[in-house]
Design brief:
By secondary structure, the chain is α/β, with parallel strands linked by helices. It has 2 domains: about 80 residues, no CATH class; about 260 residues, Rossmann fold (3-Layer(aba) Sandwich). Helix content is about 40%, strand content about 20%. The protein contains 13 helices and 14 strands. The strands form 3 sheets. The protein has a 9-stranded mixed β-sheet, sandwiched between helices. A 3-stranded antiparallel β-sheet has the order 8-9-10. It has a two-stranded antiparallel sheet with strand order 11-12. α2 crosses α9. It is globular.
């Protein structure tokens, strides 16, 4: 019923947006000076913002086709093309291959594990673009669960750990892994499993960015909400089957539109102010500011459904049970031992103003990985940024990324 109600509402809004497009076309035909009147410009801007604010369910392109790199011959711009390295029903391992000149030294291979949190991996486009000049970047391009048929089975935290283990083996020895937000716990578990098995695919370094390793430290409103009811309450309230005609019809999911609503509800004023600012930018013909806001919301409003299993496992085992921090986390019925990690460097990164994953929650990984030598550890608390600022934007590129780059180089 939940998904069906959303689809009915979406059709109603689509009709309203069609009317707004007609209004825009009509205003475009107004002769001067009527079309230049302030009231008309404001009305046009409001209609444009409404038209552009539709929720979508399709992944946007990464749109990275070239990048500047340093080569023995100096700085060059090289072509970038996407390669599918591995694929499962739930994920594509995507490589951003660069046409480096002959004789250029190999770059560190990095597995960038994107969050399963209601958005597509393209939310990390800025992360990829920043890392690409210095690294051979691969990313977990998670599929929208509503497009995955039920015949492919469930996808929970165990399957997520499976994917990280398998993809690290595809990349091979001495690779590096960087996890953003939600997958920090399963990535740490995967590295611990590889270490205990003395698998040659153990990564040379592991960077955990703003992830809930120990949710009892600096709890946020997200932590409080995740503990507001028993797991069965979430199962019966926000989990819903995918309706026809989608390929995943019948699959239980936590819909991306629910996650988006939760994010917006955390700080509605910020989003209202952003859209009012967008209207003012359109009225003033400030294309730079308008494009910046639009680009953010184009990505923010592109939502992806989560498999119900990974959502409910995350609620039960990470947010409510805090099992990794308590030494109780298991994978395929097997206890996970972070203290077995000895050959992988550990970097943790947090944002001072993060209202999703509070400072201290990610740094807790150092207390679990007790056998990693001190000289192969580092923690970075980035001043002045919230959750998104530690992997996207000006502070990420100018202050956080240099720490990541240096750490990966030191552990290569």
């Amino acid at each position: 019923m939940l998904y069906a109600a959303y689809e009915a509402q979406r059709l109603t809004l689509d009709g309203a947006r069609a009317a707004s497009r007609v209004a825009l076309e009509t205003m475009d035909l107004l002769p001067s000076p009527f079309g230049d009147l302030d009231a008309v410009r404001r009305l046009r801007a409001a209609h444009q913002v409404f038209v552009d604010s539709a929720i979508t369910h399709e992944r946007l392109p990464f749109a990275i086709d070239k990048i500047g790199v340093e080569t023995p011959a100096g700085a060059q711009v090289v072509a970038v093309h996407e390669e599918i390295v591995a694929r499962t029903p739930f994920c594509t391992l995507l490589r951003f291959a660069k046409d480096l000149p002959e004789g250029a030294p190999p770059q560190p291979r990095v597995l960038l594990v994107a969050p399963l949190s209601g958005h597509f991996a393209t939310m990390l486009t800025d992360t990829v673009r920043t890392m690409l000049p210095d690294h051979d970047v691969h990313i977990t391009d998670w599929h929208n669960a509503r497009d995955v048929g039920v015949e492919h089975g469930p996808f929970g935290l165990d399957e997520l750990v499976d994917h990280v283990v398998d993809f690290l083996q595809v990349l091979g020895p001495r690779s590096h892994v960087l996890a953003v937000c939600q997958p920090c716990v399963p990535v740490l578990a995967a590295v611990a499993v590889l270490a205990e098995d003395r698998n040659v695919a153990q990564p040379a370094s592991m960077t955990l960015v703003a992830g809930p390793v120990d949710v009892e430290l600096s709890p946020t409103s997200v932590n409080t909400l995740a503990r507001s009811g028993p797991p069965d309450w979430f199962r019966h309230t926000v989990v819903t089957p995918v309706p026809p005609p989608y390929d995943g019809a019948g699959r239980l999911v936590y819909p991306g539109f629910m996650q988006l609503a939760g994010f917006v509800a955390m700080n509605p004023k910020r989003h209202v102010d952003a859209h009012l600012g967008l209207i003012e930018a359109l009225v003033a013909s400030d294309e730079v500011q308008a494009r910046s806001t639009r680009d953010f919301y184009d990505e923010y409003l592109a939502v992806s459904d989560l498999p119900a299993e990974v959502y409910l496992d995350t609620i039960a085992h990470i947010f409510q049970g805090n099992r990794l921090a308590r030494g109780e986390y298991t994978w395929r019925g097997r206890r996970v031992h972070p203290e077995r990690i000895t050959r992988t460097g550990l970097l943790t990164i947090e944002g001072e103003r993060d209202d999703i994953c509070g400072p201290g929650q990610t740094m807790a990984a150092h207390d679990l990985c007790t056998r990693i030598p001190a000289y192969r550890r580092r923690h970075h608390l980035q001043a002045g940024v919230g959750h998104f600022g530690v992997f996207s934007g000006r502070r990420w590129a100018g202050q956080v990324y240099p720490v990541v780059r240096s750490f990966i180089a030191a552990n290569s």
